[in-house]
Here is the input.
Amino acid sequence: MIRLTAALAIFLASSVVWAQSASPALERIRNNKTITIGYRTDALPFSYVDQTKQPAGYSVDLCKRVAASIGRQVKIQPLAIKWVATTSQNRLELVQKRQIDMECGSTTATLSRMAQVDFSSPIFVDTTGLLVRRSNSASNFAAMAGKRIAVIAGTTNQRALETAMTRQAVKATVVTVKNREEAVAALEAGSIDAFAGDKVLLHGLARKVKDPSQYGVMDEDLGFEPYAIALPHDDAAMRLAVNRALSEIYSSTVIADIFRAAFGRDAQPTQALLIMYGIASYPE
Here is the structure.
């Protein structure tokens, strides 16, 4: 019996070592004493470049905390962070090629994307909406019939827009753009009537246009957008380390500080977001 117990202890100990070394991402992070994080420069208030030319925003602050937790988990403190700017076009490719260890922006987790990369627990929930010119007098999506609506090509927002058009039989012209800057320029020039995107991001854009009084975000929701951190495929240990960090954050008052720093001291999380925080606060 003693021999059996000793053998079991040795097996379990070796299993732990194997599990730790079976993570390419964690092994690379441990060896380099650095974690490489992708971020967006144009996804205010989630991920952007602040006045000091440094990455900032809700997702960036959250990932800084995640990085600190991973540093504790792999026993490398302090763990350095290497920031890599990404775009909506190359963010998942960089994760796929393991050029970044995680992508922290405003990326929606979808089933099709899960064929390319893994995702953490959700970090935010939002919906697709429309930023519109007030002169159009469009109070709901049905009133957008015959209008020109811009959307960033290949995004979940495009899918939500086209699905809503089919569902509500709204015949509008979809204009694909490369980024938010191009969409805002077209909106201000009058060549489009609306821009479809994540609602929180649209509220941020509405404050940055030349004449904010001329634009508004439509109340109607077109589609559900669960944001998550994109991670390398087939690396369960890395995903567990990130989810453990998120669970720690969601279970503390830290998440309230991160939320208010990004959205304002008077901002309140939606009921859906509070539920998401609760569900992702896993017990050990």
